[in-house]
Amino acid sequence: MKLTKMKIAAPLLSGALVFAVSAAALAADKKMNWGDKQVGEIRSGYTYAAPETRSMQDDDFANPGMVWTDDGKALWGKKDGKAGKSCASCHGADAADMKGVATVYPRVDERTGKLENIESQINFCREKRMDAKGWKLESNEMLAMTVFVRHQSRGMKMNVATDGAAKPFYEQGKEFYYARRGMLDMSCAQCHETNAGMKARANTLSQGQSNGFPTYRLKWQKVGSIHRRFRGCNKQVRATPYKAGSSEYLALELYLASRGKGLPVETPAVRN
Amino acid sequence: MAKARVKVPASVKKGEVFEIKALVKHKMETGQRKDRKTGQKIPRDIINKFQVTYGGKEVFSSDWNPAVAANPYIAFFLRAEASGDIKFKWTDDKGKTTEETAKLTIS
Q: Which parts of chain A sit beneath pLDDT 70?
C-alpha cells in the first residue's frame, strides 16, 4: 500500500515546479533595512541575493561587471564608420548627457512611433549618425556600451513613461507578463509576483526587477542583457523563447521597468 | 587577451603591510564543453599562471587549475620595502599573456 502511494507521489513532485519557503530566511529578510533598494513592496533583486553576491556588487573593484563598463568607456571614445565620429563626438567625452537615460528607457521614439530600448538606440546612432554597421545584439561591444550608458544613471530612480504613446506597448507587456505559456503553463507573475521570496527548487525567486540589467550573472560568467534573462525564463517554463530585440520582449521590458518605478538603477549588478 | 584591473595603494609607509587586488577579464574555457554544432570538444583555455614581481623580484606566484571562475579576481598582501614597480603577469593555456604595472611609492 505504501509503495503505491510513493509511486504516485514521485512523478508529481518531479513533474511540477515545487515552491517551498525557507521560513528562517524570510524572517531575516524582513528585519533588513535595504535602504533605497526597497520602495514599499517593490524590492530590487539585490535584496534577494546572497550576502557574498551583494558584497561583490558593492565593491566596484570586485564587481566583474565594471570591466564591461571600462570596455564601454573605451568604445565610447573610439571613432568608427564613414562619418568619422565616435559617441563622444556628439555626446561629449564624459558622457554627461547619458545621465538619467537608463531611468526613462525603453521609450517611444516620437519620429517613428516605435518602442526603443537602449540597445536599439545605440544601433540607431551607429547606423544613422556614425554611418557604421550596427552591433549584433548581445555581442561584447553591444553589452559593454549598454552597460556603460546605463551605468551613468546608477543610483537614479527608474521612471519610465507608460502613458500617451507608450500606453499600447505597456498594455502589450502587461498582457505578456500575465499570460500563461509553455508546457508548464506558467506566467511571469506566478513566480515573480505571487511567489517572490519563495524557492523554486533551490533558487530564490525575486520580483524579477530589471533595474540592475545588463547584469553580471555568476551563472553566465559574463554580463547579459534583460532579453537573455527573458529567454532563460521562457525556456524554464518550456516555452519557445522569442528573439532578443523582438517586439514582445521590448514591450515586456517596458512593463517590467514600470513595475520597478522608484528603484535605483544598479547597472552593472551582480546576481547569481 | 583581455584587460586587467589592479588596485594598489598610491603610497604606503615603509614596512607597512598592504593589500593588492587584481582582476583580469578571461573566459576561462574549462575544456569540458562541447561545441553544439560540431560536437567537438572546445579545447581548454584557462589562465594557468599568475606572477607578481616587485622591484624585479618575484613576490607572489600561483598556478591555477580548472574550476577557477571566469574573470578571476585575486587579493593578497605585500610588505612595503622600497618604492618600485609592481608587475602583474597572467599566462593562459594558449601562451598569451596579459601584463599590468602599478607604481608603489614609499612615503
A: 1-31
Number of DSSP helices (H) and strands (E) in chain B, helices first: 0, 8
Q: What pLDDT score does B67 carry?
A: 87
Task: Report the C-alpha gap between A72 and A148 in whole angstroms.
Answer: 5
Q: Which of B78, B74, B84, B104 is nearest to B9 (CA)?
A: B104
Average pLDDT value for chain B: 89
Closest to B23 (Cβ–Cβ): which among A61, A218, A222?
Answer: A61
CA torsion angle A261 A266 A268 A272 (round to 10): -90
Predicted complex ipTM: 0.81
Q: Which residues contact A201 (CB under 8 A, 6 or more apart)?
A: A17, A18
Q: Do B71 and A222 touch (CB under 8 A)?
A: yes
- How high is the pLDDT of residue A14? 44
Mutate to test the interface with B, among A68, A221, A270, A272 (most CBs of B within 10 A): A221
Q: In terms of Cα–Cα distance, which of A135, A147, A149 is closest to A91? A: A149
What integer pLDDT is reported at residue B66 of this predicted model? 87
Contact (CB, 8 A) for A208 and A197: no
Is residue A191 among the annotated active site residues?
A: no
E-only strand ranges, chain A: 19-20, 38-39, 42-43, 107-108, 115-116, 199-200, 203-204, 215-217, 222-224, 270-271
Q: Across the interface, do A61 and B25 touch by the CB < 8 Å criterion?
A: no
Query: What's the pLDDT score for residue A28?
Result: 54
Q: Which residues pair with A19 in a beta bridge?
A: A200
Cα dist from A194 to A40, A74, A187, A190, whole Å? 16, 42, 10, 5
- pLDDT reported for residue A26: 54
**What pTM, to 2 d.p., does this model score?**
0.85
What are the pLDDT digits (tens) for B37-69?
A: 998 999 999 999 999 999 889 999 999 998 888
Contact assessment for residue A227 and residue A215, using Cβ atoms and an 8 Å cutoff: no
